[in-house]
Structures are given as C-alpha cells and as structure tokens.
C-alpha cells in the first residue's frame, strides 16, 4: 500500500434537520466516529455529529443504517 492510499480521507456529511437522534450511526460505526454533543435541531432532536472523521475508513455502514437518510459519505481529493 502506498502512502497516498494509507492517507485516503473520507467525509461524512449530516443533514441535521433529518436526524432523529436514534444513535444507530454511532452504534454501527466500527471506528467510533460519531458523538452526541447536545446540539438540537429544529424538531428538538439531539443530533449526531461525525466528529472524529480522521478515523473514518469509508465503510458506508452509517449511511446504510440511518433510517432518515441524513448521512452521506464522500471521499476527499
Ligand atoms: S463510513 Fe464507516 S467508518 Fe466512516 S463514519 Fe460511517 S460507519 Fe464510521
Ligand atoms: S442514524 Fe441517522 S437519524 Fe439516527 S442518529 Fe445517526 S444520523 Fe441521526
């Protein structure tokens, strides 16, 4: 594996207004990327935050598990 491959960076974007704070993303993520820090959206749900993106391996599990389609994964150039 080259250094470039090893340094591949991923980005998780959350649409906070869709999040219902269920925590499935946090439970599912193998790298413990998500945190709940008490931020409320307009509907009053405590939203998830992809805080530790440096740990993300791009497995897409969180995107698949989110029942509210709040998450998306992209690869940073
Ligand atoms: S893509 Fe995988 S490693 Fe990255 S935040 Fe989602 S579940 Fe975690
Ligand atoms: S799985 Fe989706 S709705 Fe549930 S806390 Fe995570 S981002 Fe929010």
UniProtKB/TrEMBL annotation:
Gene3D superfamilies: 3.30.70.20. Residues 10-39, 47-76 form the 4Fe-4S ferredoxin-type domain. The keyword Cytoplasm does not apply. Keywords: Iron, Iron-sulfur, Metal-binding. This is Ferredoxin family protein.
